[in-house]
Amino acid sequence: MENNSTMAQPVVIHGQLHVEGIQLKDKNNDAVVLRGMSFGWHNWWPRFYNADVVKWLREDWDCSVVRAAMGVEPEGAYLDKPEWSVEKIKAVINGALREGIYVIIDWHCHNIRLEEAKKFFTEMAKAYGKYPNVIYEIFNEPEHQTWQEVKACSLELIKTIRAVDANNVILVGCPHWDQDIDLVADDPITGFSNIMYTMHFYAATHRQPLRDKCDYALGKKIPIFISESAGMEATGDGPVDDAEWNRWITWAEANKISWLTWSVADKDETCSVVFSSANSNGHWEEKDLKESGKKVKQLLRKYSGSNK
Ligand code: CA
Predict the structure, then answer these.
(1) Active-site residues: which are they?
(2) Which of 17, 12, 10 is nearest to 171 (CA)?
């Protein structure tokens, strides 16, 4: 059963978010766990970057957050087509504003592109920093950079965003595709509020050793946000490990950590949640959903307390 009343909208309920210790909290100072879907790279799956898909993810999948993953470096992505790219990202952001859900503006890049990122986030903060819906993710999955390099770049971007937007949450990446959160724990960013660190898991590859690293970081008061995750191997392909995926979500929920699943796309790989039959405007039927899509839809409904 769908409840589309304004009062049920997550942003109406929770409002402006902030971080206290390791916990994401809402306007009433209550702990909040956001759950949702990441869109795939906008440059490859632009057909899903529209307000109708956001609406579908909110109404049918019970997402309280979506992530607009703006590809930066590939051909046809932001560096190549900035205006078109921003238009695609804005379609998802505006959809989230309309649906009253949170939205992560994700700089989907594996390398440091500091000047370009500063320009982009200044534009985003000016346009959207006044909305409680918005979360900034300044560096998706650093690949080969050290934490010192990622930290220096992140500090510059945090200063850039904070010059425009004093309070919305900023997500910081960590080395080795967002897995070396233990390095962050030993040398965190200080002097800024409402900062969290991203950790990404792919359950068939990343298991208890990564959860152990996260527990170490939590013990050192590092706030964790899972901006991307899924149930198969780190390549995004191969079989879904259902039991291990469940272990991860149980762990995240027990720790009140927000999580998103990768991704809204129709590539021929396990992690893309829909088949190419899926409509570009949502209204997906069961036959349009891959195994990972069916599974995550169930998880989102279950943990959001949906009565669907
Ligand atoms: Ca703000």
Answers:
(1) 141, 228
(2) 17
